[in-house]
Amino acid sequence: MFTDSVPTLVDPDWLEDRLDVPDVQILDCTVYLQPGGVKSGYDDWSDAHIPGSQFADLIEDLSETDNPEYPFQLPTSDAFASAVSELGVSNDSRIVLYDTVNEGNNNEWAARLWWMFRVFGHDQVGVLNGGWPRWTAENRPVSSSVKTPQSTDFTAEYRPELVANKEDVRSKTEDSGTCVINALKSDDHAAERIPNSVNVPALGDDGVLDTDGTYASDDALEEQFSEVGATEADDVITYCGAGIAASSEALALHQAGITDVAVYDGSLSEWTADSELPVERDE
Predict the structure, then answer these.
(1) 86 and 202, same structural domain?
(2) Which domain covers residue 132, as residue numbers?
(3) How far does CA 194 lie from the centroid of its chain?
(4) Structure-derived torsion over alpha carbons of residues 32, 38, 39, 45, reported in degrees to the nearest 10
(5) Could you tell me the pTM of the whole model?
(6) Which residues, if any, are the signal sequence (predicted)?
(7) How many CA atoms lie within 13 A of 150 on its CB side?
(8) Closest among 189, 200, 188, 174 to 261, alpha carbons compared
(9) What is the CATH number of the domain that holds 40?
(10) Contact 47, 144 (CB under 8 A)
């Protein structure tokens, strides 16, 4: 039996070799972006998925739902622990997360849940690099069998250093030792951004993903983040529109050796809603 740690970026070979290992838990995290809202990937998962996987509902079960103004906010420790326990995940689980591409956002929803697991104290978690598109393109095993997971008991231990709020960001924007990174595309960064932030897109030709939908090499990521000062910073905070691309950016930074990255969960959705907070725009 394999007892090794889960890589942060999981190669399909690694996962296929462990499909029948009991403590390896696989979760599909797909959310589809649509005009006017979002849609769960549950129906597609139930039709075809990686064998043994369960579906993790980031819309309802794994996000704070009391404030519809800011969707996908981090749930409470208790809510997170309850949701993943119902999926069969325990503190002894080695977790592999994946998602399905939607508008080019490979790995972002999986990376969101990867960040959340780390926030709540669980490091044995990785993202399938390239997700469902790569898995199926390589003719890996696929199943349509849906099984009810056996509930477990996951205990969350909150790590505040991995989460940034509005006040944290406001206090850090004038701090030369902090690198605040916008994960949105360069055009979006030019149009509207938090003052003194830099841009490394999570998506697009100049982003942290290669053209095949996998993350760039560790060396390439380190070079990208070095160019904006992240590798020398005392603190690094990522943001985007609503915290999803920012989570993928945090994973890319982790691969580049910058592991204690805080994600600004409210991101621009919260920042721009406060008329007292400054916003920069290119002329």
Answers:
(1) no
(2) 9-137
(3) 21
(4) 30
(5) 0.95
(6) none
(7) 4
(8) 200
(9) 3.40.250.10
(10) yes
